[in-house]
Amino acid sequence: MAAKEPVATKDRNYLEVFDDVAELLEASRAASAKSINALMTAAYWLVGRRIFEGEQQGKGRADYGAQLVQRLAGDLSARFGRGFGRANLFQMRAFFLAYRDTVQTASGQSGGVKKVRTASGQLARQEVRMTSARLLPDLARAFPLPWSHYVRMLAVKSPLARAFYEAEAFRGGWTYRQLDRQIQSQFYERAALSKNKVSVLAKGSKVEDDLAPEDAIKNPFILEFLDLKDEYSESDLEEALVQKLETFLLELGGAFAFVGRQRRLRVGDEWYKVDLVFFHRELRCLVIIDLKLGKFTHADAGQMHLYLNYAREHWRVKGENPPVGLILCAEKDHAVARYALEGLPNKVMAAEYRTALPDEETLAEQVRQAQVALVRRRTR
C-alpha cells in the first residue's frame, strides 16, 4: 500500500495552482481593461473625425456644426443610450482636432506607418466607413491611455505639454486623479524650468494609488461604451442599504415620491453618482441621498453641496423649493445620518424642512438594520 502524501505537500501543491490561476485571471482582467479603453478611445477619435468632416459640408459655418452635433446627439442617444450627448460629441471632435497630426495608422506594409492626412478636410467615404475590425485595432495602438485621461488633457492647450503628460502618464501608470493632480500642479512647467529634470521626472512618475482592473472596467465611460448598467458597479452592501432606505421612505406615507436610483451627474470632466433621489410632496423639493461606506468626513459634506448645487441648477423645475441633501455613513458597527441644510435661503425654511423630514437618528437606525440583515443573509 503506497504511503499517503503529506498534507503539507498537498496544501503547497494547491497553493501553487491557486496562485498561478489567480495571476492568470488578474493579467487577463488588466489586459481586458486596457483593450476596452484603447478601442473606445480609437472609436471616439473616429467619431470626432467624422463630425469634423461632416461640418465641412457646411463650409465651416459654426451654426451648421452646432446643428449637426445637436441632431447627432439626439439620434445617437436614442439608438445607443447615454454617452453621446452634445457635450460628449463636442469632446470627441476636440479630441480629433487635438490629436489629428500625431495619430498614426498601419500603412499595410510590414512595420510601416503613415500619418492620417486631413489637410483637404475630406476623406474618401470608403475609408470613413472601414470596418472596426480593419481600422480600430491599428488605431487603438496610438492611444495607450484611457479615454478619461485624454478628456482631461484636452484642457491643456500646448501640444508639447499634452505630449509630455501623455508620455509621463503612460510611463508612470498614472490614474486619472494622478494625471489631474500633475496638470493642476503644472508638472510640465516645473519639469521644464527645473535644473534637475531627472529628479523632478523621477518624483512625478511614482504611482501612489493603483486602479484595479475591475474598477477600470466599472468606469462610467466604459459602462456606456459597452452598454452595461450601473448596477454592475455596486457592492452588495451598498445595494442592500439603498434598497432598505428606499423601501422605508416609501412606507412613510405619501410624503416621498420616488424619482430615481443611481442618478448620474457630470461636473466638468468628472462623473458622480447619487444613490437615491426623492421628491418630498409637502416641502415641494428634491431630496438627494448619498450613501458612504465608512465614517463621515468633511469631504462628504463638500461633495453633497456639489450635488445640491447641480440639482438646484439642472434638476429643479419651476415652482420647486431648493433641494435638500441627506448623507448616510455606514461604518462597521455604527451609522450616521446628516442633513445638508446650509444652502437653504433662511433659518425658517431650514426649520420647516427638519420638521417635515424623518429625524436623522431614525434614518441611521434603518441603515443599521440593513447592515444586520445583510450579515445574517451572508452567514446562512
UniProtKB/TrEMBL annotation:
Residues 20-190 form the YhcG N-terminal domain. Pfam families: DUF1016_N, YhcG_C. GO terms for molecular function: nucleic acid binding. Gene3D superfamilies: 3.40.1350.10. Residues 215-366 form the YhcG PDDEXK nuclease domain. This is Conserved uncharacterized protein. It comes from Stigmatella aurantiaca (strain DW4/3-1). The lineage of its organism: Bacteria, Pseudomonadati, Myxococcota, Myxococcia, Myxococcales.
